[in-house]
Fold these 3 entries.
Entry 1:
Amino acid sequence: MSLLYILSASTLVYLLVKVIARLKQIRQALEQIGYSPGERTVIGFSSALGQVLPPIPYITLGHSHYWYSKYQIFERLGTDIYGTASIFPSASYFTLADPAAIKQVSYTRNNFVKNTAAYKVLEAFGSNLISVEGELWKRQRRIAAPAFSDNNNYLVWEVAKKFTEQMIHSWGTRQSITVHDVSEDLALPLSICVIAEAGLGQDVSWGNDIVPEGHKLTFKDALTVVSRTMFLPLILPNWAWSLKQSWKDAKQAHAELRLYLHRMIKSRRELKEQKIQDVINQKHDLFNQLVFARDADDMLTEDELIGTACNQHSSKWHETTAHTLAIILGLLALYPDVQDKLSRQLRELQNEHRELTYTHFHQLRYAMAVVYETLRLFPMATVMPKKATSDTIITTGFPPNARTVRVPASTVVHVCSTGLHYNPSYWESPDEFDPERFMDPHWNRDAFVPFSLGPRACIGRRFAETALVAELTALISKYKVSIDQSRFKFIDGETILERRSRLIHPKVGITLTPASYSLVFSPRD
C-alpha cells in the first residue's frame, strides 16, 4: 500500500469526521431554537468574518442587518419571534420584536441575564455597570445608583445650557452659520464638554483650555481622543502602538486620561470626613458622587471608578447623546413643520417663565416627544443580547393568537429594538417621523426600548434626556435649522423618506452613527 494512498485515505477520514461533527453541531443549534422558522446562513452574525462582510443571501446577514431589515424579516415570516442558525460557527439564537416577550426577557432576571460576552469591548478601561452581570453588577449598581439623582440632573441641565450658549456666542453675529459636519463639529464637542463637567467634575470651556502642569494634554482633549479610540487597547499589541502617528497619539491620550482620573480619585479620597461631606453636598457631578458613594463600608474600587468613568461617561453616553442630537437636528431640518411647532412651544414657555430651567423639564413635552421619536426611528443600540440561564418559555402575541416558544438554557435571545420600533402592530405608519405619537399620554411604553427595559435599563437615561432637551431648548429657541443645499442636493421626485435615508444614512457600531452632513443655522427674528 503506497504512502500516497494512506495519506489520501487518512485525509478523507479526517474530513469525514469533521463534517459529521459539524453536522451534529448544526443539528444541536437547530434543536436549541426548536427548528423555529427564520434565517439560515453559512457565516454567523457574531463571528469576526460576519462582522466585516456585507449581507450576502444565505452566506451572511451582515453586521448591520438589524438596522437595514428593521421589521422586514418578521413581516416576511409572519411572526414577531424567529430563530437564526449558522454553520460557522455552529450557533443559533432567537430574535424578538414582540413587546410582551421583550418585557418578559427584560424583567425576569431569574431566567434571562445580559449576554456579557457581547459587551467585552466596553472593558478597555475595566469592568463597569454596562459590561458585568450577577453579584458584581448588583454590587456596583447598589453603590452607584444614588449618584444618579435630581441634583445631578439639575447640574446636567445647567451645564448643557451653558456650553450650548458658549458655542452660540462663538458664532458671533453672522446672519447664518454653516456647520459642515453637525456630528463632528457640533454634537460631539458639545457632548464632550457636558460629560467632562457634569459627568466627571472637570472645569472645561467650549474653546481651548490650558494644559495643566504635569500633563501633555488638556482633560478635554484626552477625553475626546479616548472616546474615539476606546477599543484600540483591546486589538493592538503593545509593539504596534508606534506604527502610526494616530496610534501614538491615542496611546498618549489613554495614558493622560488614566493619569487625570488617578489624580482626581487620590485627591478626593485624601480629604477629611467633614470636607468630604462638603464636596458631596456642593459638587453634584457623577464622578464626585461615585468616588464617595458607598453601601455600608463598601466603595467602588479605583479600577471600577476608572472603568465606569471611561467606558460609560466617555464612550456609551457621550456617543449616544451626541449622535442622537446630530440626528435630531437633521430631522428638524428635513421636517420644518415639526421644527416650527417645537419653536412655538419653547417661545410660549419662555414668555411664561422668562428662563427655562430643569424645573420646567416636564413642561417641555414636545421637545421630549421629538427626542423620543428620533430614538424610535434611530435607536442607538439596534440589538440587545440576553442569555437564558435555565430552560424557560417565552410567550409572544396576545390571545387568541398567543403562542409559546421553548427556550433552552444558554440560548441567546436578541431584543431587536429596530424590529420593535418599526412593528406596525404597535406603531401606526412606523416609517413616518411623527413626534405627536408621544404626546398621547397612553402611548405604548412597552414597545419603546432605546434605553432597554427592566433592572438592566440604562441608569443614565435621565442624564441623556436632560442634556438633549437642554441643548435643543438653547439652540432651537434662537436658531432655525435648515439643510445646506450647496452640499446636499435635493433630488426631484424623491420622497421625504428617501431624502431622510440619504441624509442621515447611519452606520452601525457600538452606537448608531449618522453620516456627515452640513446644516445651516439662521438666527430667529
Note: The radius of gyration is 25 Å.
Entry 2:
Amino acid sequence: MPNKRYDYNEEDVYKILNKDVKRKTVLYARVSTHKQKDDLQNQIDQMKQWCFMNGFTINAIYSDTSSGISFDKRKGFFDMLDEIMDNRVEKVVITYKDRLSRVGFELFIYLFRKYRTEIVVISEVGSTKLDSDEVLDEIASMLHYYSMKMHSKRRDHSIEVSYES
C-alpha cells in the first residue's frame, strides 16, 4: 500500500543527476581518562593543522574519553560510525592507530573500505614500516594497556587497604 514515502540512496540520485555527493573528512580523537583532557585538545589541534597543511577541509570532529579496547562509552565513535555507514565520510583522520582502537585496527580498515572510507593515520603518512613492525607495535600497545590496567588495580587496592588501616 503506497505511503507516499520512498526509500532511496542519496548517492544514486546524485549519480542520475550527474552530481557528486560531497563526502566528509572527519577527525577522531580519543583519550583514556579525563585527566588527559589537554592531550585530547592537542590531538585535535595537531589534526587540524595537518589537514590545513594538506588541503583537507574538516567537516566534523568526533572525540571520546574512554578505553581504547572497550567501546561501551564511545558515543563520538558511534556517531562517526553511523555517518560512515551512511556513506557520508570519505576520510577519517587520526593521530595514531591506537586512538581508533588498541586492538583489531585491520578490522576497521576492512569495514571502512566497505563504505569507501579511508583512514588517515598522521603518524604513519610517508612511513615505510614493515608488517613485523606493525605486529610489534600492536603487541607493545597491548602490553602498555594491560600494565596500566594492573597498575590501576594495584593503586585502587592500596587505597582500600589504607582506608582499612
Note: The chain has a mean pLDDT of 82.
Entry 3:
Amino acid sequence: MAAPSPGPREGFELGTLAGPAFAWLRRSLGLAEEDYQAALGPGGPYLQFLSTSKSKASFFLSHDQRFFLKTQGRREVQVLLAHLPRYVQHLQRHPHSLLARLLGVHSLRVNRGKKTYFIVMQSVFYPAGRISERYDIKGCEVSRWVDPAPEGSPLVLVLKDLNFQGKTINLGPQRSWFLRQMELDTTFLRELNVLDYSLLMAFQYLHEDERGPGSSLIFRTARSVQGAQSPEESAAQNRRLLPDAPNALHILDGPEQRYFLGVVDLATVYGLRKRLEHLWKTLRYPGRTFSTVSPARYARRLCQWVEAHTE
C-alpha cells in the first residue's frame, strides 16, 4: 500500500499510500504536483496550531495555509483507504460536494522508529486573511463549548456548537442549495457507517464594493461551471455557480458575509467500541445530546441543525 521514497535527510522515510487515486483527486482540483510536493517538502515551515479536539492528533498548516495536515492512527487510515473508491465516486457524482478534499495519505518513519501516518487535505479556511470567526459544528451539546480567547489575544480558536447560540448563517438564495448538499453528503457518510464528522464554518465580512446590489455576490462574480452536459444533469449533481475566488468549492457568499464551509473528519465508523461508548454516554448524560450516536441519527441531527441555523 505504501510506496517508500527517500526522505529529505538521512534517517527519514516517507511513504505514499494509494498514490494513483490521490493523484487523480489533485488533478481534478487543478493542483500541480510540484505545488503539492513543495508543500510537503522541507523548503517551507509548517504552522502547528492548538486544537480544541479531544483526539490526540497533531494539526499543521502549510506555510501558505493552503493545505491542512493531520496525524492519524493506523485504524483511521485503514478506514479512509477502504472508503476511498466510494469517496472518489461521490465526488464524481457531486463535483461541488462540501466534503473536505483529501489530497494524500502518507507515512513517516524517523530513524527506523514507529511510523506516523498523516493525511493532507485542502484547507477549508483558505484564504484566511479576513476571517473573523471559526466554528466546528457537530449538532450536539456535550463538550461543545470553548472558552473564547481574551480580547486582543493573537490566539485563533475554533469555537463549537454552544458558542454559536443565537447566531445564524445568512445565505439568501443559496440556502436551498446548501441544505440539499448537506443532505447528499451526510447520506453518503451514513451509508459508509461513519459518524463524528464536523461541519467547519468561518465568516468573513464582505467589503461594500464586493456586495451585489440586492442580491448575493455569487450571481455577480460567478464563473462558468464546466462539465455539466445539460440543466437536468447539473440539477442531479446539485451543481452551483462558483464564486470567482480561491478555494471556491468551500465558499458561499451571502448578502453581507462570505462563508467558508466544509465537512471534515470522515474516518470514524460506528463499530463495537462506539456502540459501547453510546450506551455509556446515554447513562452519563441523560436527556442531553452527544456526538456518539448511530450514523443515521448523526446525519439527521446535523442536517436539522443546519436547517435551524440558516436563513
Note: Residues 133-308 form a domain with the Phosphatidylinositol Phosphate Kinase Iibeta; Chain: A, domain 2 fold (CATH 3.30.810.10).
